Amino acid sequence: MKKFFAILMAALMVAAMFAGCGETKPAADANTIKIGLSGPLTGGAAIYGTAVEAGMKIAVAEINAAAGEDGLKIEFMSQDDEHDNEKALNAYNTLKDDGMQIFAGAVTTGPCLAIAPSTVEDQMFMMTPSGSSEKIALSGSNIYQMCFTDPNQGASAAQLVADKGLATSIGIIYDNSDDYSKGLMQGFKDKAAELGLNIVVETSFTADNKSDLSTQVTQCKDAGCDFVFLPFYYTEASQVLTYAEKIGYEPTFFGCDGMDGILSMDGFDTALAEGLMLMTPFNPDAEESKSFVEQYQAMMNGEVPNQFAADGYDVIYAVYEACKATGVDGTTSAADACAKLCEYFATATFNGLTGSGMTWDENGMISKVPAAVVIENGKYVGM
């Protein structure tokens, strides 16, 4: 009998302890919304994730400083997904467990697509700063993009080539194993056909054989291409530019937003990027970017921000403006916040670092004026 009562008392004490924990759990702060990011903060794609994270942190710091004591603030949380789909899903779940109300990620396309079904199921509003595949926004009505979709960016590049008369004979080198690269290539190719541009070489590589792109560069040179479209990331582009210089090949090289970052690539001779053109909605040398650039450089040891940093900054401000306009605060459930933000962005217009008059269509894909720059004396110059 004594043993029974001892066990009973122990059980009651444990129950009381857990009940006490439930009672003392702090309530959500109405003045603080929780926004989370998943991105590659380490690994081969870290230059994108760390840029987005830094851009978002700058925006959060500005907003919180301006809010004062009683205004709406942001608690920002980030998780490293290493550009890995499984780790991205784990990162998203960790953020959700930590009380995330709005998901400002993921950074790269693969993780975005891996996480998207969970955000749909959770009714979690998602705005990716830099995931550019059309498949992302089409994954759910709760998902929005801050960057151009791949085909639209490719088509814009072809239109610019035609408008400025940049090419007579075009070569395309693309990554046939990457959705980003294939989407850009197809958008460019389709628009080029419509505009009557002369594509004479179309050559590719895959993730398994991208360590040597000399064959592809030589193909373009032998065909007499005076313009080469490079719809892939700056790491592979550095190989193309290096080998082209080695064989004395000097066409106009033209890339897309994945090229942004080549000037800060370790071990790359930036002189080889002189004359390189690329699509990007963000120019760090523009007057309106000055304050952001200064803050970013102070945070990132003098590094110049790329488009991904600016996209991250814009996501935070766009979401914050939406929360202020719709009454979303720290006590709003993720599902309620999602419903309100989706309704808001259906008709919203946003001005940011990466464009003015930005709007979203019924699928969550963004519309903004395309822009391009050329690298001159190690700096971006608007075209």
Descriptive report:
The protein is α/β, with parallel strands linked by helices. It folds into two domains: 32-148 and 289-367, 3-Layer(aba) Sandwich (Rossmann fold), CATH 3.40.50.2300; 151-280, Response regulator (Rossmann fold, 3-Layer(aba) Sandwich), CATH 3.40.50.2300. Helices cover 45% and strands 18% of the residues. It contains twelve helices and 15 strands. The strands form three sheets. The protein has a seven-stranded mixed β-sheet, sandwiched between helices. A five-stranded parallel β-sheet has the order 2-1-3-4-5, sandwiched between helices. Strand 4 (125-128), helix 5 and strand 5 form a beta-alpha-beta unit. The termini are far apart. Residues 1-26 have low confidence and may be disordered.
Task: Provide a concise account of the structure shown.
The chain folds into 2 domains: 32-148 and 289-367, Rossmann fold (3-Layer(aba) Sandwich); 151-280, Rossmann fold, CATH 3.40.50.
